[in-house]
Design brief:
single chain; mainly alpha; two-stranded parallel ribbon; 63% helix
Length: 329
């Protein structure tokens, strides 16, 4: 099984020559680092060093306009916001490089904005926090919109514009237009769908049941083996977050729906394990565990202790929760 995840010996060279070795931690689990890929790690390290030349070189195997998992690794690098705008100015005459720098800047400013806001309830966020939050999101919107204009075929700017728009409480018509723009470029894009599931939550002004209805329609339109099935799992996790009942997902119909979604997506023979696939598995691992479904054991077995930050951040102690569920199933 390790050969599937990281490879070993000849199998590693053939299956995933860029795989990073696992780092076992307490409970036999470990956090996925740089998507488990040495090329992504080189990209992250270059960004951390503020070396735009090295970042550009490390980006050669990737397309940030479509590979959200790789872009997401850059948005978490502290300090990127301090030099990436300058990089965009330096490459003003190169449309593609400028668009790339603006995309990274925009996505980073969204994440940076949320760092200022924190995950606290709106009523618990101070005035200065809100001001910093909005200022960072304003910059994010400016850069993301320019990146989208420079590279009309890209889908990732629209995914982050949905997030910034949600934070800035833009009109629903604007958010719907952004959703439509993203889906025109990639009708089955999971990240766009997940952002809309968040947008439809009651804490962001949606109505109960809206997100799950949207997720079901999206999943039904996806072919067998497509990762879009994760939208069902995330919609149920969001319901759990919104509920005051920690056992709200432990219902036979919910367990059945999650099992069927898993079998049609990540557990289907047609599912393709692309870079960052462990995130899909972790989403189902959490949802199935919260629902008390034995199918969780199949998912944990494939992960072999790999934990991703999302969606376990909803837990007070993510690693402990992951280990407890893993042991239970």
């Amino acid at each position: 099984m390790l050969g599937k995840l990281f490879g070993s010996g000849a199998e590693r060279t053939a299956a995933h020559p860029h795989a990073l070795p696992p780092r076992k931690q307490k409970h036999g689990t470990y956090a996925l680092r740089a998507l488990g890929d040495a090329r992504v790690l080189a990209l992250v390290e270059a960004a951390d060093a503020g070396d735009w030349t090295a970042v550009k070189a490390a980006l050669a195997p990737f397309d940030l306009g479509r590979e959200q998992a790789v872009l997401g690794q850059l948005t978490d690098v502290d300090g990127v916001e301090e030099w990436i705008v300058r990089a965009a100015e330096e490459d003003r005459d190169d449309k593609e490089l400028r668009a790339t720098a603006l995309l990274i800047s925009g996505a980073r400013h969204v994440a940076w904005g949320w760092e200022a806001r924190t995950s606290a309830r709106a009523v618990d966020v101070g005035r200065e926090q809100w001001q910093t939050f909005y200022e960072r999101l304003r910059i994010a919107e400016e850069h993301l919109l320019e990146a989208a204009e420079l590279r009309p075929g890209w889908v990732t700017p629209w995914r982050h514009l949905l997030t910034s728009g949600r934070g800035m409480s833009v009109d629903d018509s604007v958010q719907e237009a952004r959703l439509a723009a993203g889906l025109r470029r990639d009708p089955l894009n999971l990240d766009i769908h997940l952002e809309w599931v968040s947008h439809l939550q009651p804490r962001w002004g949606g109505e109960p049941g809206q997100a799950l209805e949207f997720a079901r329609k999206a999943c039904a339109a996806a072919p067998d083996g497509h990762r879009l099935g994760c939208v069902i799992a995330m919609a149920h996790i969001e319901d759990w977050v919104e509920s005051d009942d920690p056992e709200c997902l432990q219902q036979p119909r919910i367990r059945a729906e999650l099992r069927e979604a898993a079998e049609r997506s990540i557990l289907h023979h047609a599912y393709e394990r692309r870079l960052g696939w462990q995130g899909d598995y972790n989403t189902f691992a959490m949802a199935l565990s919260l629902a008390g479904s034995s199918t969780a054991s199949n998912v944990f077995r494939e992960l072999e202790g790999v934990i991703t930050q999302w969606p376990w951040t909803f837990m007070a102690d993510p690693e402990t929760a992951y280990a407890r569920f893993r042991k239970a199933f």
